[in-house]
Amino acid sequence: MIKKHRCKWVNLNNPLYVAYHDTEWGNPVFDDHCLFEMLILESFQAGLSWECVLNKRKDFKIAFDNFELNKVINYDDNKIAELLSNEKIIRNRLKIKAAISNAKIFKEIQKETKSFSNYLWHWTDYKIIHETGKTSSALSDAISKDLQKRGMKFVGTTIIYSYLQAVGVINSHEKDCFLAPQIR
Fold first, then answer.
1. Which residues make up each annotated binding site?
2. Alpha carbon distance 3, 97 (integer Å)
3. Where does Zn(2+) bind (predicted)?
4. Could you read off the pLDDT tens digit of each residue along the chain, which spans 184 residues?
5. Of the N and C termini of the chain, which has fewer Cβ atoms inside 10 Å?
6. Which of 17, 25, 50, 119 is catalytic?
7. 42 is catalytic
8. Angle, vertex CA 66, rays to CA 64 and CA 68, nearest 5
C-alpha cells in the first residue's frame, strides 16, 4: 500500500481531520449554504484551533439548524440561551451573537450580488490562488476590511485567509501533499 503524503498540519490520528483535508479543504465551493456554514465555523475558530471546531462540527450543525440561513437570521434570546447552554459546541456569547448578525449581512450581500459565491469569487475574477506558508494576504486583508465595513464580526484577515483556504479560493496544499495542484 502506497502512503499518501498530506500537508504537515494534518493530525493523522484524527480521522475527521484526515477526511476533511482529503475531501474538502482547498476544493472550490460555490454553494452559498456551504459558504455560510464554513463562514460561521471559521468565525468560531477565532482564538482556537480548526481541529477543535472540526471535532464539534456535527454538533454545530444540529445546534445551528443545519446552518439554514433564514433560521439563523431569526434567532432570538431564547435560542441564544439554548446555544449558550449547549456543552457540545463552543459557547461564546460574542461569537454566537456574531453568527446571527453575520447571517443577516450574508443575506444582504446575497441580495446585492445575487449570491454570496459571486461576492466571494469576484475578488479573484473567479480564479483559484495557489500559495502556501501564509496566514494572511492582501486578498484576505481586502475581504476582511470589506466584511467588517459591512458590520461582520470575527472576520479578521487571519480568519478570512483560513476561510478562503477552506472554500478553495486559495489552494494551499503543500508541494509534497498528494493534493498539491502540480500533482493533480
1. 7, 21, 173, 177
2. 43
3. 7, 21, 173, 177
4. 668 899 999 999 999 999 999 999 999 999 999 999 999 999 999 989 999 999 999 999 999 999 999 999 999 999 999 999 999 999 999 999 999 999 999 999 999 999 999 999 999 999 999 999 999 999 999 999 999 999 999 999 999 999 999 999 999 999 999 999 874 4
5. N
6. 50
7. yes
8. 85
